[in-house]
């Protein structure tokens, strides 16, 4: 062999190097892609990128096998006339035909009843565009996958602290000394978290993992605290109880920066019961917290307006106002709420010993109190008080789906937000840190449409389809209080469904509840498989016909780059590009990749030409927008306004002349402005020159305490990030929730819920967090189904996109049900046996593996490793479909009818978050003689026109001509 | 004499497999490639990897630990795979201690893989030659790369920086310091193979809170209202002492 040190790898063939952004999961790392003779040679982390700092994960490093996967679609396809939906028989058509079919159909819908077009997107990283398209079309039936992912995390924290985890905030592990990761949370912000946890541990930090399962990052935790799924709220509330009981809370922080000392009306007969007492009507109404509430001044023993200079108010207490109104501080109400939430109470629910809960509470409280971080950074708060330094407490938390994906997740996450607030760790060094454009007002300003009259033919919606309700008048319901959206988001069933309920769209549309739709367009969403609850039934709904022999969901359009299970059900398939073939923006308008120190956004720039006839979905939307003459996409003459998507990104402004567009960097004619500035025709070029990202580092005095930092808030207002430079006080007590409760009790001047939902709204819209059993448990015989079943996210398969990847599938080609040996003993089976796992809603046959790294009452598996036979261009007998299985078959998307005949989603009653992790199961040995394959199974999918033939025996990839 | 090696810090390895696939992508198109995959889209896929991560559970519930254990050729100082090779294909480089296979000489007899007590060698069933980790010998001397990037692909990829690379014979190198100061160890030293690669063990950080740390004069609860004092009618010694 040749001497390897004599010739650089770059000298083998023609080498090109390009920078773009990864999309192998939702993390959005910067990557450097090397091509050899036009083929992918090497994908590595961009060393200069702020997010991943040069590292890459198993998925990112396997992008080559995604690009060259035989599962790639390459031509628009139409279901063959005379074949049944789901049979997978397609004929290739031209894009012109595809656009013709779509434009004709959608134009008719738009001109008659725009609601009949529903656009739902999966792992969408361009919600500002997809949302704009829906808004311009005039349909309210739009959302991305947040409703079945982590909306509880977004809503629970944003309604409490004005920010949330992942791209909008996170743990400051650089300064923290104690770190708690609760529940499965690895798959969001994965590389940055790995980098940070490693540095944190090496710096001597203490890492506690609270999780039913010890896997993922929990493996390297200093302590593993096994907990029963769905009980985290009880754990957190017991910690809150202990901190308040022992006085281990940050009093100064609570007084200045939260509503804890504010006085709450306790007159049970008042229309204002449970509301903060106001001393004046604010001069300006807007989406901010007017500072017109009261504290109790102990010096003069009477109420004073909040933040009166020199006053140190009572944090606890019951008082009577001069007019006789009984009041309590919000903190007093919290104290009373958690009085019964003792560690002993929580032990029974969580399985975590009371002594452990107490010890962890003390670790948090004492570390926060005694190891204060003081940074020599002067700043001024919104009340014009100067501070010589920024002070923080080094206790940090991270959580995502593990807390979120329960029907009690919203209040659990409220409890977490309150816990972080009690410790004084909101936007402080060592605690939770915001990322631009957060913090935002509680709740943020955008509101959903308000009623059926907001949806009109041939008319854009008067605002975005999704928003943040502040009170019942912000709901999207008709006069009878019934939902207007197909997924019933923002209805009384799920009032704060800020990300929609994608998981109920197919069921609702199939039932015609609240109405039938015509066209459902899905982008990058595998709703016929791992993204749906109750998968088998959902697949049936997609093919079910009405009495006239028409499909109940008449037209299904699927845009995807790969042959997913859902593609088989499409009437029209639109082949998308991969991330290496497209332009994209990680935009400040939706989900940027900001850092704690300031705003960051980034782009994808194609490194390869599109395969076959693949077209980026953005171009599809823009083309459709032009054909439908949607105002944002055409000029005054109805002609195409933007040449293509890159042109759209450069020239689109949120309002004419606003200077705010998709990308924040290099704005202005010469590219010398940022955040706000007129369009720059050379903006893409300038991003490319900078490795594909823009990073603005805020002055240090703007980097902390941003909820109350005058400098930051003024800067944010000047740069279009927020409308108001007003304080964003943490909501220990949520008046927003109380307004819904008052409405349910028939009080107040807002809209009232329909009778059937009053009790539900009144119960769950508690202004203080509480723990309740997951809803599904009420409908489950827990003696018959004693075990809790959850999924975890395998790192080489985050976001479950990559069974079509020849390298990654070798790491996880099938999954097992992991059980504690005691479960095997009870079910009379051994390690490796085939078993049935059964819930009240379905059963699955799979293989069991014994593990000591699981709470014994919990069984778990890797998420979405199981695939339908033949899907993703895998062989019909590939392990994914023979041994791999989905837990989804055991999970119901709707709860059974309640005694009043009401059927609601199996979701959080506040936010509509899908309750994936609430299911109860039992496990027993499969009978002798049963086939040793998984069940249920489905007829194999076939190779579609335009797909390459998969190599059967050998794949020996070598980039470039040399390898041919 | 230089002995290049990897030092793998099990204290921070989360088992993410970044090292596994970044190795694969670099090497399949590199000097040692291709790294073929059998049944890539079919049943029981298996291919050539130079580096794999094994995961072990240690202990019983609830005292269970999960250890992720990346494993590749250890570049032994006394490599048992070298002397058994009948063709001289398996060799150890004098200049840096890297153990390599010359595919042109390899006849795929597998003697070396039988001799390796660590199971680090894998026969490429497609090319019928023995393949293994090269420490990215086709990267680490490439002067067209910035110096910081002249490292094995797995080292550059690792998100937790759990993989250190350097000369274990240089007592001042980062790897030697880590081995010395953090209890670095080799696998199965009793075989006398003197592996160059080392592992750093798990370390546990505990926090001890003393009971009296909960009691503080500045406890914020004291600020809330009047501190409790006994009512005046409560019996005291004042009424009962008689001298």
Characterization of the model:
The complex is a heterodimer of chains A (964) and B (243). Chain A is α/β, with parallel strands linked by helices. In chain A, 22% of the residues lie in helices and 15% in strands. A seven-stranded mixed sheet of chain A has the order 5-4-25-24-23-6-7, with helices on one face. In chain A, strands 30-32-31-34-29-33 form a six-stranded mixed sheet. Chain A starts with 14 loop residues before the first strand and ends in a 9-residue tail after the last strand. Chain B is built from five helices and eleven strands, in the order E-H-E-E-E-E-E-E-H-E-E-H-H-E-H-E. Helix content of chain B is 14%, strand content 19%. Strand 35 of chain A pairs antiparallel with strand 2 (37-38) of chain B.
Figure out the total of helices of chain A. 23
Largest sheet of chain A: 7 strands, mixed
How does CATH name the architecture of the domain at 162-437 and 728-733 in chain A? 3-Layer(aba) Sandwich
How many strands appear in the DSSP assignment of chain B?
11
The CATH topology label of the domain at 162-437 and 728-733 in chain A is: Dimethylsulfoxide Reductase, domain 2
Shape of chain A: globular
Shape of chain B: elongated
Q: What is the helical fraction of chain A, as a range of percent? A: 10-25%
CATH class of chain B: Alpha Beta
The CATH superfamily of the domain at 162-437 and 728-733 in chain A is known as: Dimethylsulfoxide Reductase, domain 2
Order of helices and strands of chain B: EHEEEEEEHEEHHEHE
Assembly state of the chains shown: heterodimer
Which residues of chain B sit in consecutive blocks of at least 5 with pLDDT less than 50?
A: none
CATH topology of chain B: Alpha-Beta Plaits
Would you state the CATH class of the domain at 162-437 and 728-733 in chain A?
Alpha Beta
Tell me the distance between the termini of chain A: 18 Å
Give me the CATH architecture of chain B, please. Answer: 2-Layer Sandwich
On the 0 to 100 scale, the average pLDDT of chain B is 94
């Amino acid at each position: 062999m040749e001497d390897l040190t004599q010739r650089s790898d770059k000298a083998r063939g023609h080498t090109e190097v390009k920078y773009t952004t990864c999309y192998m999961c939702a993390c959005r790392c910067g990557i450097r892609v090397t091509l050899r003779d036009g083929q992918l040679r090497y994908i590595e982390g961009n060393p200069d990128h702020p997010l991943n700092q040069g590292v890459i994960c198993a998925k990112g490093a396997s992008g080559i096998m995604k690009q060259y996967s035989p599962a790639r679609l390459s031509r628009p396809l139409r279901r063959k006339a005379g074949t049944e939906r789901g049979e997978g028989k397609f004929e290739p058509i031209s894009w012109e035909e595809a656009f013709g079919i779509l434009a004709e159909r959608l134009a008719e819908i738009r001109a008659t009843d725009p609601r009949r077009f529903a656009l739902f997107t999966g792992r969408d990283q361009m919600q500002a565009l997809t949302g704009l398209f829906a808004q311009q079309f005039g349909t309210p039936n739009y959302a991305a996958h947040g409703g079945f992912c982590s909306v509880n995390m977004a809503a629970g924290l944003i309604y409490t602290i004005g920010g949330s985890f992942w791209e909008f905030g996170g743990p400051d592990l650089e300064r923290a000394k104690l770190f708690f990761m609760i529940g499965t949370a690895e798959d969001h912000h994965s590389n940055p978290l790995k980098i940070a946890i490693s540095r944190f541990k090496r710096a001597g930090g203490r890492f506690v993992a609270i999780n039913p399962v010890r896997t993922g990052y929990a493996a390297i935790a200093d302590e593993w605290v096994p907990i029963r799924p769905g009980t985290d709220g009880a754990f957190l509330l017991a910690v809150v109880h202990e901190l308040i009981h022992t006085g281990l809370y940050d009093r100064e922080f609570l007084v200045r920066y939260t509503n804890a000392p504010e006085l709450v009306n306790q007159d049970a007969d008042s229309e204002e019961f449970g509301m903060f007492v106001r001393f004046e009507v604010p001069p300006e109404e807007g989406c901010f917290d007017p500072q017109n509430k009261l504290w109790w001044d102990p010096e003069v023993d009477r109420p004073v307006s909040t933040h009166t200079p020199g006053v140190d108010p009572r944090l606890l207490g019951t008082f009577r106002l001069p007019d006789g109104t009984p009041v309590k501080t919000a903190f007093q109400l919290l104290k009373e709420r958690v009085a019964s939430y003792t560690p002993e109470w929580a032990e029974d629910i969580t399985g975590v010993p009371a002594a452990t809960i107490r010890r962890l509470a003390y670790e948090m409280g004492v570390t926060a109190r005694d190891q204060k971080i003081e940074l020599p950074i002067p700043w001024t708060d919104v009340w014009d008080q100067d501070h010589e330094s920024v002070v923080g407490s080094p206790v940090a938390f991270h959580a995502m789906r593990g807390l979120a994906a329960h029907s009690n997740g919203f209040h659990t996450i409220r409890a977490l937000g309150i816990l972080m607030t009690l410790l004084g760790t909101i936007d402080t060094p060592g605690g939770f840190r915001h990322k631009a454009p957060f913090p935002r007002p509680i709740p943020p300003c955008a509101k959903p449409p308000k009623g059926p009259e907001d949806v009109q033919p041939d008319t854009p919606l008067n605002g975005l389809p999704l928003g943040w309700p502040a009170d019942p008048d912000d709901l999207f319901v008709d006069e009878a209080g019934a939902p207007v959206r197909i997924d019933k988001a923002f209805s009384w069933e799920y009032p704060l469904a800020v990300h929609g309920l994608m998981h109920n769209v197919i069921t609702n549309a199939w039932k015609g509840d609240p109405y039938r739709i015509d066209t459902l367009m899905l982008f990058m969403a595998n709703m016929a498989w791992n993204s749906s609850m109750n998968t088998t039934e959902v697949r049936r709904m997609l093919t079910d016909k009405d009495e006239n022999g028409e499909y109940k969901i008449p037209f299904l359009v699927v845009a995807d780059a790969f042959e997913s299970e859902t593609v088989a059900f499409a009437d029209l398939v639109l082949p998308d590009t991969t991330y290496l073939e497209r332009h994209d923006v990680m935009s400040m308008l939706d989900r940027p990749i900001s850092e704690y120190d300031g705003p960051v956004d980034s782009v994808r720039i194609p490194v390869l030409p599109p395969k076959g006839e693949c077209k980026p979905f953005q171009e599809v939307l823009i083309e459709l927008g032009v054909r439908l003459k949607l105002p944002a996409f055409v000029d005054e003459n109805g002609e195409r306004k933007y040449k293509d998507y890159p042109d759209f990104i450069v020239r689109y402004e949120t309002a004419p002349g606003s200077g705010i567009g998709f990308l924040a960097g290099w704005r202005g004619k010469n590219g010398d402005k940022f955040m706000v500035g007129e369009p720059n025709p050379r903006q893409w070029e300038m991003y490319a020159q900078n490795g594909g990202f823009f990073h603005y580092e805020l002055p240090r005095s703007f980097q902390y305490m941003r909820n109350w930092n005058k400098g930051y808030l003024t800067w944010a207002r000047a740069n279009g990030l927020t409308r108001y430079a007003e304080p964003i006080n943490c909501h220990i007590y949520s008046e927003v929730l109380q307004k819904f409760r008052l409405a349910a009790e028939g009080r107040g001047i807002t809209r009232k819920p329909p009778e059937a939902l009053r009790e539900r709204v009144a119960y769950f819209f508690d202004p203080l967090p509480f723990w309740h059993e997951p809803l599904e448990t009420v409908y489950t015989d827990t003696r018959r189904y004693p075990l809790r079943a959850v999924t975890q996210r395998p790192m080489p398969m985050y976001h479950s996109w990559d069974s079509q990847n020849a390298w990654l599938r070798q790491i996880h080609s099938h999954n097992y049900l992991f059980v504690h040996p005691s479960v095997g003993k009870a079910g009379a089976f051994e390690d490796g046996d085939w078993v049935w796992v059964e819930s009240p809603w379905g059963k699955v046959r799979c293989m069991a593996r014994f593990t000591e790294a699981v709470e014994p009452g919990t069984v778990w598996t890797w998420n979405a490793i199981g695939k339908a036979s033949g899907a993703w261009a895998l062989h019909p007998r590939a392990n994914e479909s023979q041994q791999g299985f989905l837990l989804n078959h055991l999970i119901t998307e709707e709860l059974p009818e309640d005694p009043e005949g009401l059927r609601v989603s199996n979701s959080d009653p506040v936010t509509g978050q899908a309750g994936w992790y609430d299911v109860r199961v039992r496990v027993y040995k499969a009978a002798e003689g049963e086939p040793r394959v998984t069940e249920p199974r489905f007829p194999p999918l076939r190779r579609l026109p335009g797909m390459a033939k998969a190599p059967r025996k050998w794949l020996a990839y070598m980039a470039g001509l040399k390898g041919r | 004499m230089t002995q290049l090696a990897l030092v793998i810090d099990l204290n921070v390895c989360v088992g993410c497999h970044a090292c596994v696939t970044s190795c694969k992508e670099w090497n399949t198109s590199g000097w040692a490639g291709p790294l073929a995959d059998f049944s890539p889209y079919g049943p029981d896929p298996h291919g050539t990897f130079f580096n794999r991560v094994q995961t072990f559970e240690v202990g019983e519930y609830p005292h269970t630990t999960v250890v992720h254990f990346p494993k590749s050729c250890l570049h032994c100082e006394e490599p048992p795979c070298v002397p058994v090779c009948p063709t001289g294909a398996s060799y150890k480089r004098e200049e840096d201690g890297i153990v390599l296979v010359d595919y042109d000489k390899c006849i795929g007899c597998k003697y070396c893989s039988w001799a390796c007590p660590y199971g680090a060698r894998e026969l490429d069933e497609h090319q019928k030659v023995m393949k293994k980790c090269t420490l990215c010998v086709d990267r680490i001397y490439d002067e067209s790369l910035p110096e910081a990037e002249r490292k094995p692909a797995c080292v550059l990829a690792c998100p937790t920086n759990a993989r250190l690379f350097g000369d274990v014979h240089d007592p001042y190198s980062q790897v030697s310091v880590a081995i010395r100061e953090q209890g670095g160890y080799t696998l199965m030293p009793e075989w006398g193979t003197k592996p160059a690669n080392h592992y750093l063990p798990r370390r546990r950080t505990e926090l001890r809170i003393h009971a009296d740390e909960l009691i503080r004069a500045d406890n914020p609860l004291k600020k809330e209202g009047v501190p409790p004092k006994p009512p005046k009618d409560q019996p005291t010694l004042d009424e009962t002492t008689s001298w």
